[in-house]
Amino acid sequence: MDIKHFSTTQLDLLAAELAADLTATQELLSTLPPPTLAKNGLAILNLLPSSTRTGLGGKTILDLDYDSAVYGPKGAEVPTSSSGIRSGDIVRIEQQPAGSATKWVKTELKKGGVEGVVQRVNEKGISIVLGESDEEAVDKLLAEGKKLWVVKAGNEVVFRKMELAMRRLGEIAEAGQESRLMRVLFGHDAPSAVQEVEGLQFLDDGLNESQREAVRFALGSPDVALIHGPPGTGKTQTFIEVIRQLTGQGKRVLVCGPSNISVDNIVLRLPPSLPAVRIGHPARLLPNVLARSLEVLTRTSEEAQIVNDVRKEVDEKLGQLMMKGKGRLKGSARKEGWRDVRELRKEFRVREAKCVTDLVGRAKVVLATLHGGGARQLRDQKFDVVIIDEASQALEAQCWIPLMNASKLILAGDHLQLPPTVKTETNSRSDKSKSKSAKDTKPPEAPPASTSKYPPPTTLSTTLFSRLLAIYGPSIKRLLNTQYRMHTQIMTYPSVSLYNNELIAAPSVATHLLKDLPHVEDTDDTSVPLIFYDTQGGDYPESTDAPAAPGKKVNLLAESTSNPNEALLCAHHLRLLLDAGVKEEEIAIITPYSAQVSLLTNLIRSQHPAVEIGTVDGFQGREKEVVILSLVRSNDKGEIGFLGEKRRLNVAVTRARRCLVVIGDGETLSREKGWVKDWVAFMEENAEVRFTGLDEIQ
Q1: Could you tell me which residue ranges the AAA+ ATPase domain spans (predicted)?
Q2: pLDDT tens digits, 662-681
Q3: Which end of the chain lies in a sparser environment, N or C, as judged by fewer CB atoms within 10 Å?
Q4: pTM of the prediction?
């Protein structure tokens, strides 16, 4: 594959994706009133400035509190949809427009706003990291004493990092300076032969044989190794062994993943004695990880002492500038105050840079998201091995951010589960128009006739993991074949149809059922691993939002497909489980459609807040003792939409540990040939099939 052509193609695809992201955001912000934006998690209203302080890099952190006159004490009445804005999101802080504000007024208020990155959102309010160049604008914004609102903005930063990586890759290729690893990753050179690791002694006695073989393969591969981890097969446990073995050999390791949770799960499993630093926003990290986060270490470690005194001075100055009323600095005194802050920040950054260099430099393992792998704190750091977890959920351009100077790469993932979400693909095809060939094509594992002529991917959803499998075939990977999650019957169909019937259920889970939990009664609903509510017959029709009438604006937040009666059936089975003693936190209700999520949430959340309700896509990587799967589609045409994407259905049916409850129209689902039809036939043969009328659940 031509590397320059690859980088150019990726840049075009990234530009289109960014444009789609920004266009969608701008269209929403320009057409919907603030309350509607807030209701849908795109804005937080009625905020008041509270304080400012100094964060990593000397940047100002602005704390905004919920207005207690609107939300009650401690934000008790803040709508849960406000959680649509999360740590790490890019937002604009603006003076809040009145509900009757004209478009001109909104535009003028926007000009006075500033952008920042959300550090945290909690029951008190929101904290935002600001840019240095925004100080005067922030000062003016706060001086007016008006209510503020925070609006979600397009996340250009992550795209810019990917674009920078792709441009650099293209420049390296043009100059003929490709590394050995780059040549292997693009099919120019074959991977070197796997070497035997002499004297290998496993540190984790609990590894099964497939995990041990994956560790041997990862350690013995000089260039690149893929670890294929189907659902529940102990991929993280395998990774920890690889990391411990590498550091035991004196190697430095950079560990990355596409999400904070994927990285934090590894941090939590690392031995406390292993020197490790986690780079990233503390607010986005799990609480148990904070002790190893770089920002916390720059405050608590021995090296931090040279920084803390300057930080204290900066915060004191900022406190003076935030004062209101008679104590407020004005005129030249105010200008001098900001000048002092800027000078102190220069000193702060010099001292902090030394502290950060010392902390990161002595760490044997550094962990970050893929975007964090390009952080300035890592620019001069050298690593012997780069490890990327959940690589099949990451855009390839993301993976190249930490890969530029790498000499060895270990990837872990499962190309048979969902790839990363790509807006341009979602927007360019309707839910109903997917061809069967697109739905039922299994990602290739056999190499093409000529790897040198293998064309660059034409879509961002083609991952580095799947691309390497397509070039080199299964010889470049090792499969983890023992799963520790699912009852054998839940596992069987995915294993046979996707994993070449190679999966094995560990003895500890092979026959476990809900009734085996000490607090659960033995009932018809807790004594079987598979239940299929077949809703065929017309009582459970799907509901699709009608298109806008001519001349009317389309509801940009409208959902597509839902099934109200199916939601009632979900609630019915939920009651049966709870009556049998199953705990709310052991139950998840998932569905492919976000409209159905809204229905289920409105129906169930107030009475059963601990029951998790969400989309299939959002539940990837998760598990519950029992999962209720609402498939929604029920129509005379036999249209099943993106249910036909076997990777989505694979995720859906592999989340449950002891019981999977499927609710769907068997007749509709069986109309199209392929994976779904075969799976329905399997359920009809192996599950307890129920036909429940509306009169039984209302």
Answers
A1: 221-485
A2: 999 999 999 888 889 999 99
A3: C
A4: 0.85
